[in-house]
Amino acid sequence: MSVITTQRHGEVLVIISDNPPVNALGQAVRAGLAAGIAEAAGDDAIKAVVIRCEGRTFFAGADITEFGKPPVGPSLPEVVDAIEQCRKPVVAAIHGTALGGGLEVALGCHYRIAIPSAKLGLPEVKLGLLPGAGGTQRLPRVAGVADALTMIVSGNPVTAARALEIGLVDRVADAGSLADAAIAFAREVAGAAGHPVSSLRTDRIAEAANHPQVFDKFIAENSRKLHGFDAPKACIEAVRAAVELPFEQGVKLERDLFMKLVSGTQSRAMRHLFFAERQAAKIDGIPADTPVIDIARVGILGAGTMGGGIAMNFLSAGLPVTLVEREQAALDRGVATIRKNYERTAARGRMTTEQVEQAMGLLTPTLDYGDLADCDLVIEAVFELMEIKKEVFRRLDGIVKPGAILASNTSYLNIDEMAAETERPEAVVGLHFFSPANIMRLLEVVRGASTSPSVLKTVMGLAKRIGKIAVVSGVCPGFIGNRMLSPRQTEAQKLLLEGATPWEVDAALTEFGFPMGPFQMADLAGLDLGWTAEGSTSSTIREVLCERGRRGQKTSKGFYDYDENRRGSPSPETETIIADFAAKSGLPQRKFSGDEIRERLLYPMINEGAKILEEGMAQRASDIDIVWLNGYGWPAFTGGPMFWADTIGLKVVLEGLARHARALGPDFTVSSLLRSKAEAGETFN
Ligand code: 3HC
Ligand code: NAI
């Protein structure tokens, strides 16, 4: 059956797309749309047209799988132009998500009607692109420059209600009656004398034409967020063209910019990440008919930094949580922090006070382990000590109902050892949340030796329900993320002893695109994590910094000195402390270039990633990219560590490691997978 069909309702022709799962605008859809418009144009009995989609959504964009392949006509810009030039009014009937090329089709239509749950956006920037079918020229003309800039540069969609406010849709229909409402709308406008044509409008861009400084202001306000990315700059340039140039010239500029971006490495990297994120949710070797366990109540043990944040994920998703602590004071503190976090969100307008109370109403704080009995999943977030974890698992196993899942939030420890303490090792799994757990989207799901497919499938589904991006890891110290962080930290410390400053090391990574470097990160987290004054041995730079009261941002000094706005500047005291350690180390001192620092920090990470792959600890290279992107701020425009290594060439990485062999030390070993792939000219992804 054709993906596009037409139906006649009196004098209205309805063009219907049915191209699951998301009605992507592949070649067959484009050709069908063009044919539908031609059918309407050639039939005098037809006075108006409706374009709508079957299934879960209106067109969610161009078909991304076609990028990089030879184009087959008609192109999307041609189709959008044909719709706009149709002499009979065309109404877009929008449900689900009208995204990218989908919204561009809607902008080519003369009228737009949407249901309240619909979302409309131009997310191309998230794929390293800009809208390439007239979106940068039509959206400002329809919705005004300020909103168009925000939508196109952020890539975030707006709701139907907001779309109505800014003039992007003309009407909002009742949820159940979109098809009929669109036909009625089409009948209504069929007889009108003229119809709004997006590309001909000037009313919404007139103001910006008189105030061109809006663009400079927008760039200044967003420069930090946009740093390193090519696509947002192109988006801004194209919207500026909508204001300054005639439509045809603006469209040509948009086209040129699109072609440049789509063939560049940044967009290739970001498209890789789009598919990598979806791939990560798929687990090898789990049959499709594997049953899932119903999770109706979650138990959490430990109301500290992590336990509280983890609880918020479930409360926000409407799941009741039983939160257990060992002492009242800690419990009260934990609950107060949860409330404070919600209230802060409400103060920023992102939650109503009703929603705060709703979430808090789902929370049952208690000191009694027995209250966990009826939970379907219990996650422990107590101290990071194996003896304590083992005891906790023995105890939970005796209390929590049979069939329920027992999970650990450990960052480094062996899940299998915990599972061995229970009578239900198949129900034990690692759920490694990242701090702050209510905000960070990454979740490492640690698959133990005995974890059952059903438990794994259940927690992957649950992760999606609470808005996390889950990646499966095998059992190894630090799992995927922290295991790869470890060689980076080691090299960062060593570089200090060889003559590099913390600020040079951090700058090398921020220039690469990380939001912060290792020493800025340490200052933010607090240098005294796991440090006690009594046990101090003054044997590391970090210990001495702590002894001198330099414990990070919270004490206004750590590696850096901080002003009242938490802006850091290089500290002479830190430099002296480092110089003392460097002198004691006897290592020769020298200057390092940014490139050399990056090689020392990043190549050993790639090497560790390769080991993780060859040991089967990650299912695929792209899963490692997803971990580093969402857990550690690896810059998206490089596609993640493994994709980046592929881009620069594995041979280059291998040669770099050989060049730095002496500095890396005798304990450093090169991954055999990295070596064999580099020698064979292969890639990880
Ligand atoms: N092209 C090709 N495949 C797509 C696609 C697209 N635009 N959008 C989604 N898919 C595929 C996904 O890869 C996935 O495939 P899989 O089942 O084999 O893994 C399947 O459709 C379902 O997608 P999700 O799992 O993401 O489904 P959700 O319901 O969670 O989300 C969505 C739906 C919000 C539409 C989300 O898929 C999405 O954001 N899609 C991308 C939207 C986008 O970026 N559009 C712009 C494209 S670029 C463009 O239009 C250029 C133009 O300006 C010229
Ligand atoms: P925390 O010290 O802030 O909180 C631990 C809480 O557990 C304390 O409130 C303590 O009173 C409570 N507790 C200890 N033993 C208990 C028991 N037997 N029964 C009930 N409650 C008990 O520690 P944090 O940072 O929340 O870490 C918890 C776990 O999460 C650790 O395994 C840690 O490795 C892991 N983790 C920590 C991250 C972080 O950034 N802090 C990130 C990811 C994982």
Automatic annotation (TrEMBL):
Pathway: Lipid metabolism; fatty acid beta-oxidation. One of its GO terms (biological process) is fatty acid beta-oxidation. One of its GO terms (molecular function) is enoyl-CoA hydratase activity. Keywords: Fatty acid metabolism, Isomerase, Lipid degradation, Lipid metabolism, Lyase, Multifunctional enzyme, NAD, Oxidoreductase, Peroxisome. Residues 478-562, 599-682 form the 3-hydroxyacyl-CoA dehydrogenase C-terminal domain. It is found in: Peroxisome. It holds the Pfam family 3HCDH_N. It catalyses: a (3S)-3-hydroxyacyl-CoA + NAD(+) = a 3-oxoacyl-CoA + NADH + H(+). Residues 298-473 form the 3-hydroxyacyl-CoA dehydrogenase NAD binding domain. Its main location: other. It comes from the Bacteria. In the N-terminal section; belongs to the enoyl-CoA hydratase/isomerase family. Belongs to the enoyl-CoA hydratase/isomerase family. This is 3-hydroxyacyl-CoA dehydrogenase. It comes from Maricaulis salignorans. The lineage of its organism: Bacteria, Pseudomonadati, Pseudomonadota, Alphaproteobacteria, Maricaulales.
